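[#protein-structures] MJ: dropping Aminoglycoside phosphotransferase (APT) family kinase protein here for a structure pass
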Amino acid sequence: MIDQLERARQLLHEINQAHDLRFTLRERCRGGVVGAWLLTDPAGMRAILKCNDRMAHRMARLPSLVDRIRSAGYPTPAWLASGVTVDGAAYHIVDFAPGEPMARSALTGRTAAQLVEVIESQVGLDPDPVQDWSRYVRACAFEEGKSDPRPVLRRLGHSGVELVEHFDAVLAPYAALDLPGGDLVHGDFNTCNVLIHHGAVSAVIDVDACGSGTRAVDYAWLLREAYVRGGEPQAIATIRRAGEAVAGPGVLAICAAATAFDITRFQLGHDPDSLPWVLAGLHRLADDLQHG
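AK: finished. structure tokens for Aminoglycoside phosphotransferase (APT) family kinase protein:
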């Protein structure tokens, strides 16, 4: 943590100089894989610094993308500064949004309805066709390249092979189905990235992976979370019904297979001890998609 703290201080010093800002580092934000830090300025304004070197290639166009989706009413905080340092560190500072992540409370039918309302606000926004989530999802679900998750899962052994085969049975009727596009896709739409304040959604955060595609992608990510996390049956039904309404059950099934494979690969690298219960939830998801 000392190394991370010192790196964040050095980065903030460079950002303040580059953008003529006066922020002070306060503390690291709880949760998340990529570092995020609470900042304040002399007037007491709060902001969040996020560092994500994997997004360096997108930093030139992300600020205008965020401005466009905000102007369309999408509830994500304004970006105050962003860029890439001379040594390749990508960063952005966003306005502080009040609230707690929805992940800290139960996923109920009511909260699912609130999340559906957010995803439906993404219809037709199509912010960045270069970041094509529909294409990425289809590759995750069906392709066998070195960068795709299916080969990684098979190397897990029986548990990985079993998951691939289970979802292959789900996907069998949909192998030739194309995914639509034209919507905003958050790309990591889960309850950790949605803040709630006084019972209402106050912000959708961590939009740096957002792009274009079908919003069914975000429904599938949320549905997968509901099965793995143990969301209430009404929540699962609400999310699935809305997801299938986008472009039919086949599109949602392809997106669900993609997120199942993708999250398994992610957990393998970050939290392998969680795999048994994650896989159990994913098999329940596959069962329900296959049998109604």
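MJ: nice. The domain at 101-291 is CATH 3.90.1200.10 (Aminoglycoside 3'-phosphotransferase; Chain: A, domain 2).
AK: one more thing. The chain is about 45% helix and 15% strand.
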